[in-house]
Amino acid sequence: MTALFKRIGPLVAIMLATLPVLGVQKAPNTANKNPASQIVGDWQGVLQAGDQKLHLVLHITQTSDGALKASMDSIDQGANGIPINEISFQGGTLSFSSAAVGGSYKGKLNVATSQIEGTWTQGQPLPLNFKRAVRAFAE
């Protein structure tokens, strides 16, 4: 075993010494460079409130200074552009609130499923998951 190490040891040292010369570099981590960009776009979800299903669309944009802005549509109620007063995305968690409807949301982005899995609270907490909007809701 020591004879093998004596032969491989200098080879490993030479390889390590030549890596900078060969231009081998660690790949940059761009996934967390601007985490808010993961959440920007349109998201749709269905809120089950008793016997009633409310189809919701959440519109998230990002300003030039990096701040998030949002509005929400409640398709079944014909309410479009409901203002979102506060919104944040930190550590993979989306939080927002709307004074106009007295509600708030908190959910975790699941990158593997492209869903935000969370809870809408407007009087009582209800599960609400959003997925990337790819087309309008079917009637």
Task: Report what the structure shows.
This protein has a domain at 37-132: Lipocalin. A hairpin with a 4-residue loop joins strand 3 (68-74) and strand 4 (79-83). The N and C termini lie far apart (72 Å). It is of the alpha+beta class and 139 residues long. 15% of the residues are buried. The chain has a nine-stranded antiparallel beta sheet, with no helix packed on it. Mean pLDDT is 81; it is low at 8-32. The protein has one helix at 2-22; strands spanning 41-49, 52-62, 68-74, 79-83, 86-90, 93-98, 103-110, 115-122, 124-132. It has one helix and nine strands, in the order αβββββββββ.
Question: What is this structure, in a nutshell?
Answer:
The protein is 15% helix and 49% strand. It has 139 residues and is of the alpha+beta class. The radius of gyration is 24 Å and the shape is globular.
Strand order of the largest sheet: 4-3-2-1-9-8-7-6-5
Largest sheet: 9 strands, antiparallel
Radius of gyration: 24 Å
CATH architecture grouping of the domain at 37-132 = Beta Barrel
Q: Which homologous superfamily in CATH is the superfamily of the domain at 37-132? A: Quinohemoprotein amine dehydrogenase alpha subunit, domain 2
Question: Which overall shape is indicated by the principal axes computed on the Cα atoms?
Answer: globular
Q: Which CATH C-level class of the domain at 37-132 is it?
A: Mainly Beta
CATH topology of the domain at 37-132: Lipocalin
% residues in beta strands: over 45%
**Percent range of helical residues:** 10-25%
What order do the helices and strands follow? HEEEEEEEEE
Question: How many H/I helices?
Answer: 1
Q: Structural class of the helices, strands and pairings?
A: alpha+beta
Number of strands: 9
Uncertain segments: 8-32
Tell me the span between the first and last alpha carbons: 72 Å
What is the mean pLDDT? 81
